[in-house]
Amino acid sequence: MKNHIDNNFFSIKKYIPKNVKILVVSKNQNIFSIKKLYLSGNKDFGENYIQEMVKKYNKLPKDIRWHMIGRIQSNKLKYIIPFIYLIHSVQSMKHIIMINNIGLKYNKIINCLLQIKISDEKNKLGITDKEAYNILESENYKTMKNIRIIGIMGMASFQEEKKIHNEFSYLQYIYEICKKKYGHYILSMGISRDYKIAIKYGSTLIRLGTLIFGERKKII
User: Fold this and answer.
1) Which residues contact 166 (CB under 8 A, 6 or more apart)?
2) Cβ-Cβ contacts under 8 Å for 123 (sequence gap 6 or more)
């Protein structure tokens, strides 16, 4: 018998287009809740902090696809490279060089997204579209064998709906350019409060936490 977390997940999934993946944001959620969703068929979970992700990785099934969605913690990055599925928050060539070098040590290609700043809010990080194009066109990146940029992501403002529409529209515009020029196939935008708008603008991956788990409680 499914609990309320499963019910929340499946009630949302019914109305999500098949080409849109739900990434369950499991930050601060307990092992039991994550495993319930895993046993119901979901294998994609996103974490903000490396230490928390490693603890959960050690306790949960090894075919879970772990996504790093928080700020990159340079001194701890090496601990997740052996098992990470996708890093969402790359914001500089420094990050790219570091990820490539660690990937080389583990003989692994690391898939990543470039985080684009689409909001003027100070707590929303990211790079400009020009900075993203410069990275993707750089000879330095093109010669790297252990990192692969496969899309972009962005976080909208916590403001009125019209502004969110404008920000997602802009990110979609950048994505279409990247898709045409570089073959990118992931557009990660949309969270619990704005995922419906994000889907209208072509999001292929939405990050849902509160809608599935309710308000977060720090229990690991």
Assistant:
1) none
2) none
Helix (DSSP H) and strand (DSSP E) numbers for the chain: 9, 8
Can you give the pLDDT at residue 4?
Answer: 76
Q: Which long-range contacts (CB under 8 A, 24 or more apart) does 208-212 make?
A: 208/12, 208/22, 208/23, 208/24, 208/25, 209/24, 209/25, 209/26, 209/27, 209/29, 209/46, 211/8, 211/12, 212/5, 212/8, 212/9, 212/12, 212/24, 212/37
Hey, which residues does 44 pair with through a beta bridge? 65
pLDDT digit string (tens) for 129-155?
A: 999 999 999 999 999 999 999 999 999
DSSP 8-state secondary structure symbol assigned to residue 109 = P
Nearest to 52, CA basis, from 21, 89, 25: 25
36 against 7, higher pLDDT: 36
215: which DSSP letter? S
Kindly report, residue by residue over 62-91, the tens digit of the pLDDT: 999 999 999 999 999 999 999 999 999 999
Amino acid 21 reads K
**Structural domains of the chain, ranges and CATH numbers in brackets:** 4-210 (3.20.20.10)
Q: Tokens at residue 199, please?
A: 């889907």
Average pLDDT over residues 83-101: 96
Task: Please report which helix (H) or strand (E) contains residue 98, including its range.
Answer: helix 93-105
Q: Tell me the average pLDDT across 99-116.
A: 97
Q: CA 37 to CA 213: how far, in whole Å?
A: 10
pTM for the full predicted model: 0.93
CA distances from residue 131 to 50, 102, 127, 154, 203 in whole angstroms, order as listed: 26, 23, 6, 14, 21
